[in-house]
Specification:
Blueprint (H helix, E strand, L loop, with lengths): L3 E5 L4 H13 L5 E5 L3 H10 L8 E4 L2 E4 H10 L16 H13 L1 H4 L9
Parallel strand pairs: 1-2
Antiparallel strand pairs: 1-3, 3-4
Length: 119
Amino acid sequence: MKITTVLYDGECNFCNKWVSFAKNKLKKNKISFIPFNSIEGMKIIEKFQIKNKNSVAYIQNDIVFFKSSAVLKICKQLQFPYNLLQFSKIIPNFLLNFVYDFIAKRRLKLTSKKQCCNV
């Protein structure tokens, strides 16, 4: 099984807290969380020609998922009951991405006033 890679904004306090939470709740599945602005992150961005750095990117088997699709893929690998969030994929993708964008635009208010990524 290939290790899954998740690229995220390492300068965003909300993103860092979410990644820390996800790492603590992962099942045996392995995910490598890498900040976009790290050397390894930049190599992955170049390899997959990722242009959308304003979203979390989930990479598995050379397929890249963004926004709510990426978050749901991560949730699928979390321990119970958090893995149940994956069932929200029955909701149309445009609605899930609307919620993702809504939260992304307000994450400075959700955490400390530390500079966060732009959306």
